[in-house]
Amino acid sequence: MSNYLFNILVAIDLLLAAVCGCRRNETLSAAAYSLEKDAKWMGRFWRPAIDLAFSFRQYEHCRIQYEFETRWNRTFNE
After folding, report:
1. Which of 3, 25, 35, 44 could disulfide-pair with 40, CB 3.0 to 4.6 Å?
2. Overall average pLDDT of the 24-49 stretch
3. Largest interatomic CA distance in the chain
4. Domain range for residue 12?
5. How far apart (Å, rounded) are the C-alpha atoms in residues 45 and 36?
6. In 42-76, which positions are buried (b, 16+ CB within 10 angstroms) versus exposed (e)?
7. CA separation for the pair 62, 32 (Å, rounded)
């Protein structure tokens, strides 16, 4: 996948996450993992669905995205 197309897809993901009320710079995948960690029903529903959708490409996609974004935000927001 080209860099341009990947950037567009990430931007759409961040836009949808913002509309849904997620944290700043948080994708839907990371938000689903975060919600599941907080024992929210939306996280328990969406995290397995998103992980299943990305299972062909990455094992535990939501957890990996959450950890990546947490590390990135900590690095650039200090």
Report:
1. 35
2. 89
3. 37
4. 3-76
5. 8
6. ebeebbeebbeebeeeeeebbbbbbeebeeeeeee
7. 7
- What contacts 24+ positions apart, CB below 8 Å, involve 18-23? none
Q: Report how many domains make up the chain.
A: 1
Please give the Cα distance from 39 to 42 (Å, whole number). Answer: 9
Cα separation, 46 vs 31, in Å, equals 9
Confidence at residue 12, expressed as pLDDT on a 0 to 100 scale? 92
CA 74/CA 70 separation, integer angstroms: 6
| CA distances, 18 to each of 21, 27, 33, 45, 78 (Å) | 5, 9, 16, 19, 22
Return d(Cα 42, Cα 44) in angstroms, integer. Answer: 6
What DSSP state is assigned to residue 22? P
